[in-house]
Amino acid sequence: MKKYWLLIWAVVVATSGCLKGQDDPVFPSPDLTIPEDESITLQSALPFPIGAAVNNNLIRTRAPYRDVVIKELNSLTAENAMKFSQLHPAENTYTWTEADFLVEFARQNNKRVHGHTLIWYKNPPSWALNYQGDAAAWDRLLKNHVQTVVNHFKGKVVSWDVVNEAIAENGTLRDCIWLQKLGPEYISKSFIYAHEADPNALLFYNDYGHEYGPTKRNGILKLVNDLKAQGVPIHGIGLQMHTRYNMSNNNIADAINTAAATGLKVHIAEVEISMNPDNIQDLTYSAGLAAQQKAKYEFLVRTYNAIPKNQQFGITTWNVGDSDSWIRGEYNRPDWPLPFDDNYHRKAAYQGILDGVK
Ligand code: G3I
After folding, report:
1. Are 42 and 350 in contact (CB under 8 A)?
2. Is the CB of residue 144 below 6 angstroms from any atom belonging to ligand 1?
3. Cα 334 to chain centroid, rounded
């Protein structure tokens, strides 16, 4: 009897290998998927919004990607389509087509849209970086961008990452064009201008590295607490959580709990759990790694689920399937950081997310 099962297993493995096709990505995941129970989805199982950063080209061209987004998620963030360079490529030119496509896709499928991001040191286009003008002219540039964008999406985008990554690794304000031209007030001004344009939008400060330790985290917490104390309209704190399987649970818990202690809404805004932070070029994804990833997603979700309900803005993964993640391209390494595999099948990590709320 045992022999027959072994034979069936061998045939299944061999056939699934043959079925994998021409479009295989560079680092295919081994088949470590979990059984698909069609009666369960992330959006129906979780008591807070669950989303992903999405890429319009994949929505348009890859049906399994689009299907997973529609079926599993109830909140969407544009991975790139709402950034400064994409929306405002020249001083007097705004290009809305891509961002509008995403907002319309979300409307048709009843998804919340979180806006990402108004002001980020990394993204000003060259016209802005080379802009000549005094502080008043720079103030007008900032105000025009923030208010034109927020106003365009008023009533359609419920929340914004107003300022992204303003704190450096040492906990002080990061040097950037906005700091150079407008001083530290560029941050409070961005929130005030966004609030003027859409008083109903929830406004977030978003950054990475809360889980690295106290140095950067304390800088971020000081910034948001100072903004609150000054009466600046800030409603939430985004923890990007681009993290890794061997990040300590204590650090993850400290990141989430100190953010919650601000009293602001907390968004786990860009999560992925990297499995290959040491850039091992011949690493393969194993059942052991999958189990560690599952445990880390579960811990993250369990910790988040324990903060006050009215502060749970939701959890957003940074794209959907492993092959969509920015990590492989950015670091040129095999990695499997997301809850869905290259073929959009559920991984153990997916089960970890579900288990985190049990
Ligand atoms: O669209 C162009 C394409 O036309 C061109 O051929 C190609 C050549 O390089 O570039 C394409 O644009 C790239 C874009 O991603 C779309 O793939 C940009 O070069 C590349 O810089 C851009 O990277 C994005 C990065 O932010 C910078 O904006 C990543 O996709 C995106 O995942 C990443 O997201 C950031 C968050 O916004 C903030 N937190 C960190 C996170 C990860 O870095």
Report:
1. yes
2. no
3. 20
Q: How far apart are CA 174 and CA 121, in angstroms?
A: 8
d(CA 319, CA 270) in angstroms, rounded, equals 8
- Residue 222 phi/psi, 5-degree rounding, is -60, -45
pLDDT tens digits for range 73-129: 999 999 999 999 999 999 999 999 999 999 999 999 999 999 999 999 998 999 999
3-state secondary structure of 332: coil
Residue type, 172: T
Active site residues: 165, 270
Instruction: Please state the pTM of the whole predicted model.
Output: 0.92
Task: Please say whether the beta carbons of 167 and 207 come within 8 A.
Answer: yes
The residue whose CB lies within 8 Å of the most ligand 1 atoms, and thus the one to mutate among 79, 83, 120, 239, is: 79
CB of 79 closer than 6 angstroms to any ligand 1 atom:
yes
Instruction: State in Å: Cα 330 to ligand 1 middle.
Output: 9
Q: Is the CB of 326 under 6 A from ligand 1?
A: yes
Q: Report the C-alpha gap between 269 and 48 in whole angstroms.
A: 13
